[in-house]
Fold:
Amino acid sequence: MASDATFRFFLFGPPALSINDQGISLPRQPATLCAFLILNRQRRITREEIQAVFWPDVEPARVQERLRRTLYLLRKALHPHTHLIISEGNELAIAPDADLWVDYDLFEAALMDAYRDDPPRSAALVDAVALYTDDLLKDVYADWALLEREHASQRFLTAVRHLLAAFQRIGQWENVVDYAHLLLEHDPLQEVAHQALMMAFAAQGNRSAAMRQYEQCVQWLDEELAAEPLPGTTQLYDDIRQGRGVVMAETASAPRVLPPPSTVTDLQHLPLVGREAELDRIAAEWHTCQGGTSRLLLVTGSAGMGKTRLVQEAAWAIPGPDVSVITGNCYAMEAGTPYQLIADLMRKAVDLIPAKLADALTPAIRAGLAQLLPDLDPVISVPLPQPTLVAPDVNIRVQEAVTQVIRLLAASGSGLWLITEDLHWADPASLACLNHALRRCDELPLLVLATLRDEEVPFDSPLMNWPASSVHTPAPTTLIRLAPLPRESVHHLLALLLSEDPASLAPLVHHETAGNPFFVVETLRALVDQNVIFTSADQRWHLRRNALDPHANLPLSDAALDMIRGRVRRLSRPAQEVLTVAAIIEHDIDESLLEALIDPAVALDLALEEILYASILDETAPGLYQFLHIKVREIIYADTSSPRRRFLHRQVADFLAKNTALPGKLATVSRLAYHYAQARAWTPALRYGWQAAQTAVQAGAMAEANRYAVVAQTIVDEHLPAIDTSALPENLPAIRFDLLALQAEFRRQAATAGLYYPPDLVDALQALVPQVDDSRRARAALQQATHLLGQGALREAKHSAEEGRTLYAQLGDRWGELDAIQHQIDLAFRAGDMVTMRHLLDDMRALAAAVDHPQAQDTLVFNDLRLAVYNANWIKALKLAQRLSATQRTRLDPAVKWQYLAHLGLAFMKLGAHEEALIVARQAVRASTDARVLGLGARVLLARLQFQTGNLDQSEETLRALLETPDPLLGEGELVAPALALTRCCAARGDHHEAAVWAGQAAQAAGQIRLPILVPLAQVAGALADLAAGEFEQAARRLSYPLEFLLLVEDTSPQEIFTLRAAAAQGNGDVQAASKWLTAAWDEIQQQATTISDTAYRDSFLRRVPLHRFVAYARRTPDWKPVDLLTFHHDQRHDT
Structure:
């Protein structure tokens, strides 16, 4: 049937749909199916065709189930507009009478309109190109989608090329720039776009940008196709360079200045950041020159520091319109050619000499220039003798001729800039000539601006001591040494580039690139290639959520890899040998260790001096080195053969084992474990890996201990025949037990801090118990107690915990006994046995006093916090949580840091301090993410806060991520709290079907575990679903049990149960009962408020906790509705 709904389908980019301008959340597979039906809506499609297209390799029975599931999800998302998809028999189609708007249809229609005329109509082409906001059906990789995408892409590129030609014909250069950039974004090898940009930049007076565009074109063609530019492109470059045959914009009389950074839409033209001080220094030097003096300005720094980019920006922004700017280049392959640099400069300089000044070039000057340029420009050429560069008097004539040309240009306008790129490759004759010209032009506005890589300067070059000494007397020289970009500049660049806050990406990029601008840009290019950074319809760059692993290495482009390898290859063989050994050592590269490992014939001091000069290693302390850039080390390591790596790792490990001063220190044993493992020496690798894991546990570094344990366990599992068990410090079952127990404890604490141990680890531990000593049996008993509690076997859990405590007491192990008591306290708390819990706390206090260790005191504070939460004493809970968070910040392992932050956030939330709670909850989630653990409690807390502050979409997204694809570390008991939270979201949306699904999951999980602590949560979830469905009698029955007398902690409260009963009574028309339960809820709220001594927190507790606001609202509003309770989180009517 028809309806008044308007469906808007967006097929450019990932498929998306809106109904009546309201965005609809479509799961990926239903969205793709809908797009397929839209593109084929001119016909009906059989279910068999869809199954063959979407699931060609799946069994027929499962295919039908998948199609049914996909159609169900699609219709559910479309509800109540499910008539869009019609089904007749075995056929599916889009309803022919539906009111549809499809961006792809408009794209094709605009192109048809444009091509009715010849040449095509530009306005219609502009409309079509604007609709192409991204690839058609992006992220859909089926064959049918690839064909449609390629067709749309080619139509789009053709339209852009037509627009380029149209705007070039009428001289609309800004539009030419925009569409040329757009064309290059989609195909960097479109030479017509490079030509258009060169012409546009030249026409706008930005000749340097035109030159850069040509160089970029040459680079791309060479890298991608090993081809040269078309002759037309090269001719255009020559014309622009010489100012011939290109329309030039009129130049203003004022100096050009760099425009302020704006939104970046093109990775090819990133703004210059972090070099403001250097630009100011160049401007100051030029100001000095304009007073009548010549100067040499050397811009130095290691490869990739942005020397060329800085000089280009300075040449564009600083000189002014009447200043001649000439650029010459030095080349490594021509470093031995006399006057190579000077010839390059003079070839461009003679083109700038006006014809009216040609007479100033005397025959002597022309003869000197002819030694460099046999084919002089006709404006100054005369018959000359065959050039030779042998006799000293010839060199003198060349130097003087060059000087006179430079004087002529410097005096004819407002001055002269000579830019020399890569001066480290300049030949001595060119350096001498350059210095001669600077000294002879000391009264003229002449600036020689040169880039120089210190590490590339040969030891016998005059530049080694420039400007302290030089050929003859050195010219006035200023040195600008470029340092790596600071973190703030990298953040600023990313902020200009990305639409999102780059706070998560900037530290990673800065760390991985060490602030090297070239590496920064190439890393961004690599991230674009991997689709981590992408462009959207607004032509802005975006960072794809969850696509970046904060612990993984960022990629580098091939250009960056080649540059690093080139730097290493240019070093001497001894220096390369030292770097190979240093890459194996990795960090804390000790000179004595290097000396022990390298060939005795290598002069280590000289090799290190060469490496330090090349800025590859840095001496952080006398005799101690580190790689300046981690990527350099990674590439050197990767380029070393596997056998050589293993040999060197074994040498490093043996040296450390014999010469270390602190054999039991974590840093030492972990290095030994790493090097022996890389050397495939499995017995010592296992020994030191096990020792590193144990040492890390003692140091409170649980995550690090788990990493060592996993590696050591892998050695046992995969290389057992190669292990000499007689050489191990303990028997193999004991070592295996320690490794498995540590992994089990880490996975429990890191995932949820709850009751769940992975069953496979528990079974493996129990199998080893008969083969281990009493201390390990005690630990196994405690872990088994927690595991049994997670299965609802409370009696067996208590017995196992008591067994563990007894064993530790018999051994006199006070730390073990403290741990056993904590397990018993956990059992009592989760069973709701507060009397037993308090008795156990008395035992713990006595034992903690005897141990007298801060960690024991922290455990006591944690249990006091639990009691405060149980008693709803939120001010006390807040203070204890703050104390724990502060003390643990310095000594707690990152893997469990989130737990204490989650407790602090909970206290803030219960007091109504939502801003503080959100900050802390995000910190807790970030802490779990940084430690690469789940942190369930932190994520559920964040979702609850998002719900309470009205952000239902965010809350539901967070919870569905936890529940729809649950982490394998989650046990049944851990699913109850997030299922309750998601039930609240669904009920608030009015989706009682979904609410019932998640309430049922909460009830199922609670039923399997059968812990008293979980009963109220499941009943509350069921009551919320009943209220959303209008099943008030059912809700009342669920709540008839005296739930308020059970243990209620952070996920619900007595006042919520009273309020739910009031809502059920109100729905049943029992106003008197509703009023009674509202009064009970209000009395409970007031009683809790009396424990809050802080006036501000008491006020926020009463006025900002959503449930409390609702109770106040309902008590003064007789005709309130039960549904109001479900929506109070965002309904401002409930404000008091």
In short: The chain has 49 helices and 17 strands.
